[in-house]
Amino acid sequence: MKKTVFSVIIVFFSFFVYAKPEILTQSFGKNLIYDYSKEREISTVTFFFDGGSMNCTKENAGIEKFILEAIQKGSKKYSESDINLFSDRYGLKISVTVNYDYSAISFTSFSSYFGEVLRLAADLLQNPLFPEKNVEIIRKNMIETINAKSKNPDELIWLKLNDWFFREHQYAGLPDGYVESVSKITVEDMRQHLKFLTRENRVVVSVVTGIPRKVLEPVIKENFSFLNTAKEWKKSIPADFRSIGKDTILFEKKENLETSYVACKFNLPSVTDDAYGAARLGMSILSKRIYETLRTKHGLTYAAYMGASDKKVNYGVFYVSTTYPDSAISLFYQEMNKAKTEGVSQREIDDLRNIYETSFYMGNEKSEEKSFSNGYNFMVYGDADHDSKFMKRVSKMKPSEITDVLKKWLENYQFLILRKE
To answer: What is the pTM of this model?
Structure first.
């Protein structure tokens, strides 16, 4: 009986995983991905705008988050009350993501109302009102969020380290912005930048739905025609991080701390590099090791981890909160040297693979997550189905592949220690 149930689950997962998205080249353009599965009762459309921090400077950092929050307050066709009604009646959910490489906004609803939600999404992006009262409320909330980060040591330590690690780089401007930049952004600034995003920059639209393409294609054709990727658009590829070719340790002080905080960054292969998969698995394996060493064996902390970011110009991270930062860093070095000399085991890879596969399959069930991953994969890799190919690579990953990557990239650690003033 258990075997039968398990087989049914695998078939159910496989339906979502292997239903290949379509690229609508004639009705909209090469940048629209349509992923249809008739069983989906929830539908999502996600709009991606390429560039992220490369579209901004420190003077207008935060403008894309500001725009994507502010457009939700009404357009020429839809008032704020209409949008609230959509939330109550259609199950509408709007979510915003701002990143160093892109910005995105998603609209999710019950599939039976999705056509109207597509019209709403298009009008919000094309004809937002930017009501002054709402704009000022959003500005205030953004500034409060920025200020709160400087008071939270877990946030502050990364902000301080980023100032050093991203120096003179396109990622130097924080996607959430600064108090100074957000305070100065005007409605006209937002209108001009939104025009750039939707008509002069690269736009990728990702639809995941339970509605057949032939039903929604006329709606898409009619309402999304204003979106345009400039003919002279060039793929945004950030420069490499500035390297000093050695380890560094920076120190910052903050009052009223009960413990010290250690954060570290170091270069890793880009998400578009063939070595990224091995680097990502390697960092996950090292995260488990570092936690066991610092927490279980030596009792230095309750919080320690490592990981790989997912950027076009990429980095690994290490974090620990502890009253013994020097000991923690010393043990970190021991684990990194061990990883480079002894490598990783097949069992560690197999244990991690099970976690990756479960997360991957479950994520494909959710329309919002699937819409996001399809669009992200197409924008970065030119292949909406990249995730399934990545999972195939993970299934065949060998210890030697990961060990080779660790040997090459585990070096030039940039530490910041945040301690009591």
So the answer is: 0.91
